[in-house]
Amino acid sequence: MSNYWNKRIECMERTEMRALQTERLKRVVDRVYHNCQPYRERMQAAGITPADIQSIDDIRKLPFTSKKDLRDYYPWGLLSVPLSQIVKIHASSGTTGKPIVVGYTRNDVADWAEAGARCLTAYGLDKDDVIQVSYGYGLFTGGLGAHDAAMNIGATTIPTSAGNTEKQLLLMHDLGTTALACTPSYALYLAESLEKSGIPRNEIKVKVGIFGAEPWTEEMRKEIEYRLGIKAYDIYGLTEISGPGVGFECECQNGTHLSEDLFYPEIINPETGEVLPDGQEGELVFTTLNKEGMPLIRFRTRDITSISHERCACGRTLAKMSRILARTDDMLIIRGVNVFPSQVEAVLCTLKEVEPHFFITVDRVNNTDTFDIDVEVKEEYYSDMMSEMEKLRKKIAHAIQSVVGIQPNIRPVAPNTIERSQGKAKRALDKRKFK
Ligand code: DLL
Questions:
Q1: What are the boundaries of each domain within the chain?
Q2: What are phi and psi of 254, to 5 degrees?
């Protein structure tokens, strides 16, 4: 039996949810049309007014927004309220140029904490838990977002932020942390550090992991669950929409529920913009149905997933998306083949000789793409013998080729040589981009 924070919403019948979404869509479209010039201009160019939006299905008439719009109207051009109503801001850096800055009103922050509370409750957490928030605090939404969610359910919240791993472990032990919130890659690093720390595992009370902010595979979940002896749950979110808590896994651990009363999801064909039916993979698009500060209409996330509206075994009717393993912008096209770092992660987690710590380097030499992967070998398998390492190299290369379709050049490296991440892991460098 699942725990719900807001059963009325989380288990709402579809017709009632659609009515709620329709009412909120009409309101938010009206708001942006009258209070935000770029939206008004764009709707006028498309020949529509708020009166054309009569049902949630009419959302398809509205133009998309993108990360570029947030940059073009930086910093405040997409606000729909005066700055005096904004109570906090967050930003995400992205790869180039100006950061993306988002402003939230008091109600936006409350909605976000509501969405976050739904997540933590679904993971079985409540006021008796001690939640250690090891996402970075600051402009990144991870720390403060998870913090507000933890406070909202009344849990004892420890704002450790990311980094300072020894202290994290000390506090985890001494304060009796029962749930850990951080990126999956940092969780793996904490697990490794815990193994080396000499702290007896049975003195650590952590039972739940609240992991997100980067793609992580099912294989990585098993690895972390095994090494920390916990249940590891996915949490999804993005700065533009709010932050951690847009989506969450339930105890079924087979998809990420979306709080679709607040954030309306669509899946589109990224090339044509056409809306795709349930089950088909495409780009995830969100409309913030209740936001005041910086509402976003049909925001293109670049995340690739599919959606289902079937009632889940946990009782929730909230739409469920498949785990996000890829973004349109972290796909590497190598010798014409699409390769995602998450595919490499999944393979490495299944090989006993290596750690899932790796780094992909792609380059172009003599008009041919090169595909090198540094892979960290476990202490007990790392050898000075060339023949041993050669055998291992071939084994890893073969395993990866059978999944991604092309053969990488594997460079086995000594234990603890690949940089550990305390936030979002950086898994690849495409040198072709700089040529
Ligand atoms: O990463 C918000 C967040 C913080 C989510 C903490 C979960 C936990 P941004 O920095 O704006 O916000 O990055 C958003 O990160 O579009 C996805 O590509 C990726 N991402 C976030 N959560 C997941 C996840 C935060 N659970 C971008 N699985 C998103 C896969 C994720 N990718």
A1: 1-329, 332-434
A2: -130, 40
pLDDT of residue 272: 97
| Orientation angle between helical segments 341-349 and 386-404, nearest 10 degrees | 130
Ligand 1 binding pocket includes 135 (Cβ within 6 Å): yes
Q: Full-prediction pTM beyond 0.70? A: yes
Domain with residues 332-434, CATH architecture: 2-Layer Sandwich (3.30)
Q: Is 143 in the pocket of ligand 1 (CB under 6 A)?
A: no
Model pLDDT for residues 280-311, shown as the tens digit of each residue = 999 999 999 999 999 999 999 999 999 999 99
Interval between CA 396 and ligand 1 midpoint (Å): 29
- pLDDT tens digits along 192-242: 999 999 999 999 999 999 999 999 999 999 999 999 999 999 999 999 999
Mean pLDDT value across residues 269-274: 96
**Enclosing H/E stretch for 356:** strand 354-365
Q: What is the pLDDT of residue 326?
A: 81
Round to whole Å and give the CA distance between 375 and 417: 9
Whether residue 305 has its Cβ less than 6 Å from ligand 1: no
| pLDDT band, very low/low/confident/very high, at 403 (cuts 50, 70, 90) | very high
Superfamily for the 1-329 domain = ANL, N-terminal domain (3.40.50.12780)
Residue 284: which H helix or E strand, with range?
strand 282-288
What separation in Å is there between the alpha carbon of 181 and the centre of ligand 1? 13
Per-residue tokens: 152: 């909202």
| Residue identifier of the C-alpha nearest atom 30 of ligand 1 | 215
pLDDT value for 95: 56
* 267: β partners: 284
Q: How far is CA 231 from CA 207, 226, 252, 257, in A?
A: 6, 9, 11, 17
CA angle 258–260–261, rounded 5-degree value:
140
Q: Is 284 in the pocket of ligand 1 (CB under 6 A)?
A: no
Ligand 1 in reach of 345 Cβ (< 6 A): no
